[in-house]
Sequence to fold (268 residues):
Amino acid sequence: MGNYKRITTHVLQRMKEAGEKISMLTAYDYTLARIVDAAGIDVILVGDSASNVMAGHETTLPITLDQMIYHAASVIRAVRRALVVVDLPFGTYQGDPLGALKSAIRIMKEAEAHAVKMEGGREVLDAIEKTVKAGIPVMGHLGLTPQAIYKFGTYTVRAREAAEARKLKEDALLLQEAGCFAVVLEKIPAQLAAEVTVSLRIPTIGIGAGGAVDGQVLVLHDMLGLNKEFSPRFLRRYLDLHTAVTQAVQQYIDDVRTGDFPNENEQY
Fold:
């Protein structure tokens, strides 16, 4: 396996060609991003999932470009190795190639991010092409695209039907030709994800897309078990921080109430 000092889009391409799996997690703040980066993650996604995880919104739609820049800048200040990709939020690129470019430029300049991500296929090609031509790396995103939740009306698996699967395959090739350096495949049948991965020169990153993709991404707060409500089949919880944090807070409350905290060694 390659011991890469700094992950770039070029490194991800080399990893795919060498058969090395790419690891990707979300982060939205300095403290956790610093831990994730130091642990050796390849890619950090400053996802618009911050709308749910950090702000408590039901969907990803409400988060603004200014808020994404704030989260991205916080993450960038922590990172020494990982490639940092930032979601363009809903309404900043759909149907507006020039708006997409302006939004991406703001993220690159104000947050000093490394790349941006856009959801969708043929319908956002103009926005992707314009952004890539300006020298900004773009990651694509197909399958379940959460910004389109009100169109889908459900978070269920996408592209089970032949027509939608065919469109996804076509869209993946279009994204590659438009200049995307990688594409996220979210919540699609594993066999379809495998076929798309073989068909592309660029890496595929899966979430609920099986094991044949070139890499995997999870939301950090989900895999750490901070979020009890969200339990899709594709999620593996590596910790139960919800319980651990609850117990720690309750112990602190007890210690304060009984006078156990602070003790003689914890005062001046």
User: Anything to note?
Assistant: DSSP finds eleven helices and eight strands in the chain. The longest strand covers residues 138-143. The chain has a mean pLDDT of 96. The radius of gyration is 20 Å.
